[in-house]
Amino acid sequence: MIKKSSYFKNQKEDIPAFEKWVNKLEKINGYEYDKLSIDTSLGKTKIYGFNTENNELNTLLIFPGYRTSSLIWDIEKGLGNISKELRIFLIETNGQPNLSEGNSPDIRNLDYGIWGSEIFDKLNIQSAYIAGASFGGLICMKISLIIPNKIKCAFLLNPACFRMISFGFKNLYYNLLPMLKTTDENIRKFLNKVIFHKPEHSISKESEVLLLEYLHLAISKYKDKTEKPYYMGNELNKIEVETHLIVGENDIIIPPAKSIRKAKKHLKNNLKNIQIFEGVGHGIELYDPCLTYIEKTIKEHNKPKISKILQCDHENDKRYS
Fold first, then answer.
1. Is 112 exposed, middle or buried (CB count within 10 Å of its CB: 0-12, 13-18, 19+)?
2. pLDDT in tens, 205-234
3. According to DSSP H, which parts of the chain are helical?
4. In the chain, N or C terminus with fewer CB closer than 10 Å?
């Protein structure tokens, strides 16, 4: 299963620095995470969570984007705000800059899906909701192909499975800046032009500093060898899981129009809703209304009758037809 191995360049310094970053996030947020570690075919997988021992709550598994940690989802306390009625597991995907082992499989086969099924088994989860941002959206689709009977529904946030990333000049320029020279200035340019879209989509100064610290670790301290996401094409025709597509209208990494068309083409009756957030960039997992939407949809999903929020209205949406 293991094809590539990524790693922190100086583990004696970089891993404690990451742990210190997690502690700082907890201190700023005012709460600690449940912390788990399980053995998988990709090595140790680190998991953070809320209410992980409460089997009475609806369960949500979260998978992060490329070159990010699942904890990014909670930099603005968005998960803390919705965690009262949810059992949440933040999965640190192997091969990404986090405390899981850096092993990763061939991205084009189903091994990441098998890895996801191992997580369900090790955590003794019989059924759950799953959500993934960007690269995490692709992971969610891989898992849905392996254990569709255990997935109540999947939430895909600006997912990297319906199209390749944009090769537009603006996107490439701002993505490459911090890679060529990892300075606060270049990272801020990347965040302001690609991840967020001010004034509608932004974060606090305190959260920005925290995000800058993480990205310094992820970019300059981590040797990334994990294969990049790709357009899954006809693999998606086999998806049997109810899926919700959530996109930011101003995402320049994965512009939404093509993703929406491909989702309609491949998922057909399993695509239950398309939610478009205007004025939102690629970092949609840091947009509080997006997390609230997921929480509300899970609540509605468990009612005897499906609410209108789940009725797919994309046939009437002419913007991306």
1. buried
2. 999 999 999 999 999 999 999 999 999 999
3. 11-29, 78-82, 111-122, 135-146, 169-180, 184-190, 205-220, 256-267, 288-301
4. C
Whether the CB-CB separation of 218 and 190 falls below 8 Å is answered with: no
- Structural domain span for residue 91: 4-316
158: left (phi over 0), alpha (psi -120 to 50) or beta: left
β-pairing, 128-133 with 58-63?
parallel
Residue whose C-alpha is closest to residue 282's, from 256, 317, 244:
256
Assign residue 293 the CATH number of its domain. 3.40.50.1820
List, in order, residues 6 or more apart from 95 with CB less than 8 Å away.
4, 6, 42, 102, 103, 104, 225, 226
Query: Across residues 4-20, what is the average pLDDT?
Result: 97
Q: What are phi and psi of 250, to 5 degrees?
A: -110, 30
Q: What's the one-letter identity of residue 251?
A: D
Q: Could you tell me whether strands 222-223 and 128-133 are parallel, antiparallel, or unpaired per DSSP bridges?
A: unpaired
Residue 276 lies in a domain: yes
How many domains are there within the chain?
1
Q: Is the pTM of this model over 0.90?
A: yes
How is residue 94 written in tokens? 């192997």
Structure tokens belonging to residue 285: 């997992």
Position 321 in a domain: no
